[in-house]
């Protein structure tokens, strides 16, 4: 029981604390940086995923046409919207005839991945740049993404998603977590390849584009398959996109549950990713950054149960159980009181992420995981 307890404790704290510290140390030792090539200017297809985005689609199109990139087309991957998204897009196209913009509407509402698949089929660009309708690119974001494709073994490049400043506790908590995530991603990219991207700003070569299960997402699958195929997935911190984080805990929780909709599949499939003798740095990064993270909520359950059985085995076990109970009480107080104080909000936010993993697994087991979802209105 003691072995189970301490293995669980290690599996919880290492990916959250030990792994980031390990990466910081590796960064000091290896000191490698990725190069850029601003002379490489192939045609780019900008694919904007849109489902009922009437609130933001015009702002997004205005944002994209202000890019400094010289040769691009824009495809609005319309996932069978039933609001004014298409109407507003068509009006924008008519009023901006000098830009190559068109709407590609899918036949059935099957989710973001399907809409992207169908848009790629009609794309003319050598490089595909993907974005969400509520993500605002910096003027040079496309140029920065493309500049990282300096060799044929680079298959995927994601940019840096910046959550807009907000004093809302859920946004502060998300920014704290996200800043640590970006730091790890930067170091992984400099050393070899990243374990995960993000869905707001990323690019790949059209010849390397693959169709995935419609419930899955590109931000997990593309870096995974790049690594498994001996290629690289990189992170360019200078390719910036800006977005509102969910300003309500409810919206943020729904987003976290959605992100875990294939958690069990991600754990049990493509187990060859763990073969460090074949995949080297990719296996090391993926195991620590993704696999252990996927299992985190389950290790918490095992830790708590084993701790109860070990309560009579020494003071350290009593102290740790007391700490676990205190943390849960603070999380519950945060949930009940809706207080913004960090003392109760961060335990609440962390517990919310763990609960999202459990619900994501439950949804997958019961067949409730789906490719479609309702967007969080507070992010628009």
Question: Major β-sheet, in short?
Answer: 8 strands, mixed
**What proportion of the residues is helical, as a percent range?**
40-55%
Count the beta strands: 8
Rg, nearest Å: 22 Å
| Residues in β-strands, percent | 5-15%
Class by SSE composition = alpha/beta
State the low-pLDDT regions, or none: none
Q: Spell out the helices and strands N to C.
A: HEHEHEHEEHEHEHEHHHHHHH
End-to-end gap? 48 Å
Chain-averaged pLDDT? 91
Number of helices: 14
So what's the overall shape? globular
Quaternary: single chain
Give the spatial strand order of the biggest sheet: 3-2-1-4-7-6-8-5
Task: Report what the structure shows.
- This protein is 52% helix and 14% strand.
- The protein has 14 helices and 8 strands.
- The chain has an 8-stranded mixed beta sheet, sandwiched between helices.
- The protein starts with a helix and ends in a 15-residue tail after the last helix.
